[in-house]
Design a protein that fits this description.
By secondary structure, the chain is α+β, with helices and mostly antiparallel strands. The chain has 24 helices and 30 strands. The N and C termini lie far apart (90 Å).
Length: 762
């Protein structure tokens, strides 16, 4: 929405801004195309105005990587009462509608003013009021700063530096002895009154550096009636040590801040002023510094008494007050009796993913890199949008918002189309999927959640998918406290939108086999314990025998592609058993295809084998809060989608649980590796000799199994050389192959008849 930036300056009084805020206004005006003259004219309504200063500073505003914009002026104007026009025309509230309050707002529009009654001359005891003030705020040994003398500039009376050499105890003793304030601190100008510093000093000066304890802050407002100021201060339960009428247009509340140092003092004062502003008490922001002067009770100012209105009101301490403010409108529900709902227990939320996740609940998918987690989430989005199944589990149909934090827009869109195509699902309900592309624009989750809720609240989404969360994590990933706060943002999304929130996270570094599924996600255990459903992916190591078997299936798929292209109707000629044999399928195809067609078939075969070799195997474990645990799911990640292992080929693969000692585990793995290699040799040799071939070259064997010539030669002969050239003999594979009837001699392999003598290698 566009604003008249210059017109908004009417809501901002320069005298109420700090120096930096005043500079910010100038920088914002220049950024928005206004002139130094505009800044100068507005700035003149301030006693601090110096002629020519605006024009001098204007030339130094040369731009910045994060410039101050007109939005800053809009925010300052809001503090001054500007109310932006709403784009929401509003709606009629029903009796059951809930009216929510802004955080930190205590005072509503029904507050009653509280009168400030100036004491009569007969009842007023100035000496007692000042003594009470000093005893309330200071210890007897602490130095107190006060001012009774003024200087006049263009008709304005301003305080001089004053005194700071007396302690509170000395002042009290002398005032009580003389029973007269003026005889101790000197005569005051009746037009101006007197001032006192509310924080103790070191006796060396009156600057912030001279403050010895950051104990109090001043809350003062002169833009609303005094009666309203008095009422708001009290209803806000501010921890006020002393409340003083200034003798003018305001009351001065000396508020307990109790900060350990200046930086924390500044933070607490900012928080205090913000709460006051939210509740209608427009605070004079020039009073932020801890050495600030306030009005001294017990003196006359321009015909009115500066008097002590009250002491020790509101909450007892800063911490108590802050806790109270944050708890006043925490929006938490009240406890309810089980008896009141026992006969009418509300129904459970319906399933979004059958047997895994209910609508409005949270789910985390964790896994290592290259597990295809993002593709799994896209598959899930499609399953929900189309009302189909995901990993064999039926999904309820609904609308999905996919929050893309990692890919550029084009890549993300291509992924969705590629996954649709690979799944073979018609894109009948793509209008159920919205994509929010935030690559390069992500903000921390505590900032993202309200923005997401605002954009999604009228879209009736069934699920919000956030991919990946490492882009929006706030705080230390290993801190339970900080990650609990982070995960609370997902609860806000679920509660506000009544939609399931689904997100993914990566595994920690190192081996995962010995860990439980809930302990594999990186960072604090909060990640695993927070969601209602955790699905964890862990990669399976594919044995060589299975890899060879899958390669045989890939070879058959390549042959079938060629036959379907060049020999339509071939299925009627080939029996079911023959279609499971690479050898039989090869024999059939070569007998019916021409030379160029066979070349094309070889291309199909290579393509299918490459695709097969690129597949990875995965097992999914589930930890569920609302449902019984399901049996682990085994699947192939066949880019770009996951395919269920319907044949059960992956079921027997075990994941190393870390229970074996490292040396024993290594020996066991080496033995298993050797067995797999031998099986690979035997299955490949059976295939190569299947056509009645009498002899093959060892190079053909090496090419088929994908091993180097040196490795195959060593395995067949059992002979190899060490680094120093000495010959060694290791007959493991050569002996086993000889026992199976295969003989290696001078680069050639032949198959002996079973009647021949299979003597052992030497």
């Amino acid at each position: 929405m566009n604003y008249d930036i210059k017109g908004l300056l009417n809501y901002i009084h320069p005298a109420e801004l700090s120096y930096q805020e005043w500079v910010n206004v100038g920088m914002a005006l220049k950024q928005e195309g206004y002139t130094a003259y505009d800044w100068d004219q507005w700035s003149q309504d301030d006693s601090r105005y110096k002629r020519g200063e605006c024009f001098k500073k204007w030339s130094s505003f040369n731009g910045a990587s994060e410039p101050v914009t007109g939005g800053t002026i809009v925010e300052y104007a809001k503090r001054g009462g500007f109310i932006p026009p709403s784009s929401d025309p509003g709606h009629e509230l029903g009796w059951d509608d809930v009216i929510t309050k802004e955080e930190g707002v205590v005072v509503d529009g029904w507050i009653e003013d509280r009168e400030v009654e100036e004491p009569s001359d007969a009842s007023w005891n100035p000496v007692q009021e000042l003594v009470t003030y000093l005893r309330t705020l200071f210890q007897s040994t602490e130095n107190v700063g006060y001012v009774t003398k003024v200087y006049e500039n263009d008709g304005e009376l301003s305080p001089q530096k004053g005194n700071w050499d007396l302690t509170a105890g000395e002042l009290i003793e002398r005032i009580e002895k003389h029973n007269n304030i003026a005889e101790v601190i000197g005569d005051t100008d009746p037009r101006a009154g007197a001032w006192i510093r509310f924080n103790p000093l070191d006796g060396q000066g009156i600057k912030n550096d001279n403050v010895t304890d950051y104990r109090y802050a001043l809350v003062e407002s002169d833009s609303i009636p005094i009666e309203r100021q008095n009422a708001i201060i009290r209803q806000l339960e501010l921890p006020v040590a002393c409340l003083v009428y200034s003798g003018g247009k305001s009351v001065h509340a000396i508020v307990r801040i109790e900060a350990p140092d200046l930086p924390e003092y500044k933070r607490r004062v900012e928080y205090l002023y913000k709460i006051c502003e939210k509740n209608g008490l427009k605070v004079d922001t020039q009073n932020k510094n801890p050495s600030r002067l306030s009005r001294m009770p017990g003196v006359i100012r321009n015909g009115h008494k500066q008097f002590l209105m009250d002491t020790n009101i509101g909450k007892k301490s800063w911490d108590e007050w802050k806790d109270w403010i944050e708890a006043v409108n925490d929006d938490l529900p009240d406890p309810e009796s089980l008896a009141s709902v026992w006969d009418d227990i509300p129904p459970l939320a319906p399933c979004l993913i059958e047997g895994v996740l209910r609508k409005g609940h949270k789910m985390l998918i964790s896994g290592p890199s290259k597990a295809g987690k993002s593709f799994a989430l896209i598959e899930l989005c499609i399953a929900i949008a189309e009302g189909s199944s995901w990993f064999g589990m039926k999904c309820a149909q609904g609308r999905v918002l996919y929050v893309n934090l990692e890919l550029d827009s084009a890549s993300c869109l291509h992924r969705f189309k590629d996954v649709y195509d690979a799944l073979g699902i018609a894109a009948s309900h793509i209008d159920n999927i919205d994509i929010w592309n935030l690559r390069g624009k992500a903000v921390p989750m505590d900032k993202l959640a309200p923005k997401l809720i605002r954009r999604a609240e009228k879209k009736n989404y069934t699920a919000i998918v956030i991919d990946p969360i490492y882009k929006v994590i706030t705080g230390d990933e290993n801190s339970a406290d900080q990650m609990a706060l982070f995960c609370n943002q997902f609860d806000k999304i679920c509660n506000e939108l009544k939609a399931a929130t689904i997100y993914c996270h990566h595994h920690s570094k190192g081996s995962q086999g010995q860990k439980k599924a809930m302990d594999r996600a990186s960072g604090s255990g909060v990640f695993a314990r927070d969601p209602d459903a955790l699905l964890d992916l862990i990669e399976l190591e594919i044995p060589e025998t299975l890899r060879a078997n899958e390669e045989g299936k890939a070879r058959i798929r390549g042959i079938e592609k060629a036959l379907s292209k060049f020999c339509p109707g071939w299925q009627a000629d080939v029996g079911q058993d023959d279609r499971l044999s690479p050898t039989q399928m090869t024999n059939y195809a070569t007998g019916r295809l021409s030379g160029p067609q066979i070349e094309a078939m070889d291309g199909f075969i290579k393509e299918e084998i490459k695709r097969s070799n690129n597949r990875t195997a995965w097992r999914i474990d589930g930890i569920l809060r609302e449902f019984p645990k399901f049996d682990p799911l085994n699947m192939w990640f066949d880019y770009p989608i996951h395919r269920m292992d319907d044949a059960g080929a992956l079921a027997d693969i075990e994941i190393d649980d870390g229970s074996v000692m490292p040396r024993k585990r290594f020996a066991k793995s080496q033995k298993k590796k050797g067995e797999d290699t031998l099986d690979l040799y035997l299955s490949t040799l059976d295939f190569l000799f299947a056509d009645g071939v009498e002899e093959i070259d060892y190079k053909d064997l090496a090419e088929q199994i994908g091993k180097s010539l040196d490795t195959v030669k060593k395995d067949l002969s059992g002979e190899y050389r060490t680094k120093n050239g000495k010959k060694r003999f290791y007959p493991r594979h050569s002996k086993a192959l000889r026992e199976e009837g295969y003989v290696y001699d001078n680069g050639k392999i032949r198959r002996e008849n079973e009647s021949e003598d299979n003597s052992e290698d030497k």
